[in-house]
Amino acid sequence: MLTAYTVRMAQLMDPHCDMLLVGDSLGQVIYGLPHTVAVTLEMMAAHGAAVVRGSYHAAVIVDMPFGSYEASPEQAFVNASRLLKETGAAAVKLEGGKVLAPTVEFLTSRGIPVMAHVGLTPQAVNILGGYGVRGKSDEEAKSIVEDAVAMADAGAFAMVIEGVLEHIAIEITQKIACPTIGIGASAQCDGQVLVAEDMLGLFDRVPKFVKKFGNMGVSVENAVREYATGVRDRSFPGPDQLYEPV
Length: 246
Ligand code: KIV
Description:
By secondary structure, the chain is an alpha/beta fold. The protein is built from ten helices and eight strands. It has helices at residues 7-13, 26-29, 41-53, 73-87, 101-108, 125-128, 138-153, 166-175, 196-199, 216-232, and strands at 2-3, 19-22, 59-63, 91-95, 114-119, 158-162, 180-183, 191-192.
């Protein structure tokens, strides 16, 4: 699984990925927000629909943004059904553990497939105080495993495990029946996810758990520099790009 926010990126990733995640990380990657807390349902719906238009094979999962599902199972159902109707996506993802298990049960028993997200949950940044790895104390590790079990028991069809000590991801993967998808977790998870722009090398700085599989930032800069030079020295547009009378 990789994140996708736009139609062209979805088209390029679709043949290679089983799932495309329209992550609320789009708040930072596309909109330059400091965190995901300000991401709206409207943003998720617009980008979700674009990604669905660019995917033919991969299942598209759309993140439920902060504030759109925590108040009650009913609130979650209204907003999750809206996301599925407006985007055509296959499922929604939401962050959280035990406390939200009744919500996942409510959604899944009413026709909404839910991907869970446990461990480091970026929407809780204002409580967590940052994006540090979770589960360093035995107590927190135990609580994350309990969160995962509760979400799986509630009917989640898959689960993202983010930013935890590796042994926690392994224990969860062994304990629950649904597939686990790791990010900063373990190669022993059933699958992996990364923010596409991170793994493509669009940014200079990336978190420790990211491997850059490309150098997109440098490619974009080189192309733009060449274009700007061509415009300034009038070598662009050249004969191939101009219309002449026939
Ligand atoms: O928002 C997102 O992109 C995510 C992934 C990083 C798992 O939740």
